Every structure is written in C-alpha cells, then in structure tokens.
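Q: Structure tokens for this one, please.
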Amino acid sequence: MKKKIIFVVVFLFAAGFMFAQEAEKAESGSAVKYIAAAIAVGIACIGGGLAVGQIGAAAMGAMSENAELSGKAMPFVGLAEGICLWGFLVGLLILIL
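A: Here is the predicted structure, written as tokens:
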C-alpha cells in the first residue's frame, strides 16, 4: 500500500515538471504554486481519509456493543474531516499569495 502511494506522489510530481516547461514561458513561478497547492490538498485529504476510516471503524465497533456511544463518536469523525479542510485552506493560501 505504501509503495502505491509513493508511486502516485512521485508520478504526480514528475508530471507537474513536464507541464512546467510549457508554463515556464508564461510565468516561472506559477507551476510551482499549483504543484505545491495540489500536494498540500492531496496529502491532507489522504491523511483525513485514513483517519476517518480508522475512527469510523472503531466507532461502528463501539456502537455495535453499546448504541449510546454514537453521539460521542461523531465529534471525532468531524475532527478528522477538519484535516482535509485545513489542507484546502493551505492550498488556497498558496494560490492566492
């Protein structure tokens, strides 16, 4: 699994440099900004997805034993989803500034 993730990250990084040659004529720094924003959002969303998957599985297991725990597990899922939001905000700030 880790080898696949590393391969995808390296492939996207290399693809960004392939297209950066064309964009270099227009602006030299614009391609780097897009790559940096994509990496920030991508890593944050992958991490958030992994966290939601782990927390969701644990919450479902706990709720199968005690149904009253559903309200206590949902805030943790929301915190894990917040990771994706922070990644999006960082990517947006990279593009704007």
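A few notes: Residues 33 and 96 are 9 Å apart (CA to CA). The domain at 29-96 is CATH 1.20.20.10 (F1FO ATP Synthase).
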